[in-house]
Amino acid sequence: MSEEKVGSVAYVRKEIVKDLPPPPSTTGVIGWLRTNLFSSFGNIILTAIALYIVYSLASLVYEFAFANAIWEGTEGKDCRVPDAGACWPYIANRFNFFIYGFYPSEEYWRPNLVFAIGAVLLVALATPKIPGKMISGILFLFVFPVVTFFLLYGAGFTGLAEVPTEKWGGLMLTLVVATTGIVASFPLGVLLALGRRSNMPLVRSVCVVFIELWRGVPLITVLFMASVMLPLFLPAGTNFDKLVRALVGVTLFTAAYTAEVVRGGLQAIPKGQYEAADALGLNYVKATSLIILPQALKMVIPGIVNNSIGLFKDTTLVSIVGLFDLLGAVKAGTTTSTWSAPTVPVTGFFFAAIVFWIFTFTMSRYSQYMEKRLDTGHKN
Predict the structure, then answer these.
(1) How far apart are CA 52 and CA 62, in angstroms?
(2) Would the pTM of this model clear 0.90, i.e. be above it?
(3) Angle formed at CA 241 by CA 236 and CA 245, multiple of 5 degrees
(4) Which pLDDT value is given to residue 60?
(5) CATH of 87-103+169-374, one of 1.10.760.10, 1.10.150.120, 3.60.21.10, 1.10.3720.10
(6) CA distance 374 to 380
(7) Backbone φ and ψ of 325, nearest 5°
(8) What residues in the chain have per-residue pLDDT under 50?
């Protein structure tokens, strides 16, 4: 074939060439490490220091909880060995006390049933693909508390043995106080936030005074006042259950903080949203419930969850008014002579820390999931 003929041949591509993959050093695990941990000399130094700290702490935890731990025993003397780690037989022996407190052992099925019902309702509410959110919400907010009270307390028309609240304790009491405080304080906090932004001077003043009063005192003072001082202001012969007083104090205290979180979300709503609601002819109730509040609450999910996590951990303060929550049960268990050993208190607190971390971490992760799910991509 001559040169002229070769030069006259045209090449036409009939299919698109596939893009070449990016270099392996910029993708996958290697790419993430280079971008986030080893992108510069300073980051390499900080990463090395952080890894050393994590390794040191993880080694200590591993040695205490596993390597040097005591796994078998019936009393404290079995854990009195040189360089002993966690005394897990103590946790196994006192586990029921940590969960139920002084609740009668033959009635454990009642709190277990409450746990099961609450878990089912929470899963139904938290899972987007499960239908019937309205029914689940009504059951959880209005029916479940009543069922919980009659199951745990008993007596009355239920035919169950009466178990006074003085015998409630452990993780069961922690969940009762935290759930009641979180659920009951949220609608009250929303109303206080709306009232503080009201155009009516009397309503605004009342809400401001309430919020600032409850935010100005620590929770431990609130619980002390509710338990000790409140009965002094009541008519003679009038008395409220100690747990009820603590629940009221926790709810009002948390509502004040929730109100300020929600108010921040309301102030972040652009003025145009209010004007759009007015242009549609919506009254205050419809505009607030259909347009303003949904947007405001979506923006303050981290703050609301932060308050909830703080309240869950602050339930440990109820021990000062004679209620044995999880931490109180752990502390009470360490004072028994049967389980007198150097590592027993540390093991108990370590167990309590794990339980609290599981619940708070779950709340945190779910809030992040809800933020991503409700994110519309619109930035104010």
Answers:
(1) 15
(2) no
(3) 95
(4) 94
(5) 1.10.3720.10
(6) 15
(7) -80, -170
(8) 1-5
